[in-house]
């Protein structure tokens, strides 16, 4: 059973079950006003901007978008936008640890001290380790 208080269940009802939508209270429509307007702004930016006013009746905005939603037979693909996924924790085996020789070579080459190296490690770790890995790979060849 779809729960009208949850956003994506509401969207499913919004696009596919018109008879259930008509029974939804104005309170639940107001609850989803912001996100529905954002989703529709992907496809209809001008209309969404016109609905983006302080003091506008949120339930009326949702009902207006419902008229647009009646054109679709199912939930359109542009509603489900991709979001940034959380980065996975790197396992200890695949984590790169630079050798002392590479670190001293890098510090000598760039004329930096231990303090600057620690700052690089703190603020730009991925780039630093990528550079150090390249140095280490080239040093192993010779």
Total strands: 0
Weakly predicted, low-confidence segments: none
The secondary-structure element order is: HHHHHHHHH
Which structural class should the secondary elements be placed in?
mainly alpha
H/I helix tally: 9
Strand and helix layout:
Blueprint: H1 7-16, H2 18-21, H3 26-31, H4 33-43, H5 45-50, H6 58-69, H7 100-110, H8 114-123, H9 125-141
Helix pairs in contact: 4-6, 8-9
State the main characteristics.
142 residues, mainly alpha, 2 domains, 9 helices, elongated
Describe this protein's structure.
The structure is a single chain. This protein has 142 residues and is an all-alpha fold. It folds into 2 domains: 7-79, no CATH class; 100-141, no CATH class. It has 9 helices and no strands. It has helices spanning 7-16, 18-21, 26-31, 33-43, 45-50, 58-69, 100-110, 114-123, 125-141. Helix 4 crosses helix 6 (58-69) and helix 8 packs across helix 9 (125-141). The relative contact order is 0.09. The model has no long low-confidence stretch (mean pLDDT 87).
């Amino acid at each position: 059973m779809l729960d009208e208080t949850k956003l994506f269940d509401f969207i499913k009802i919004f696009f596919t079950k018109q008879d259930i939508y008509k029974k939804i209270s104005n309170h639940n429509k107001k609850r989803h006003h912001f996100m529905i307007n954002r989703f529709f702004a992907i496809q209809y930016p001008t209309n969404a901007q016109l609905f983006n006013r302080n003091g506008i009746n949120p339930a009326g905005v949702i009902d207006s978008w419902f008229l647009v939603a009646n054109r679709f037979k199912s939930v359109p693909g542009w509603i489900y936008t991709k979001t940034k996924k959380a980065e996975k924790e790197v396992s200890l085996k695949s984590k790169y640890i630079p050798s002392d020789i590479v670190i001293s070579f890098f510090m000598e080459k760039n004329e930096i001290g231990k303090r600057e190296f620690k700052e690089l490690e703190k603020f730009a770790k991925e780039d630093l380790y990528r550079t150090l890995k390249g140095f280490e790979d080239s040093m192993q060849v010779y």
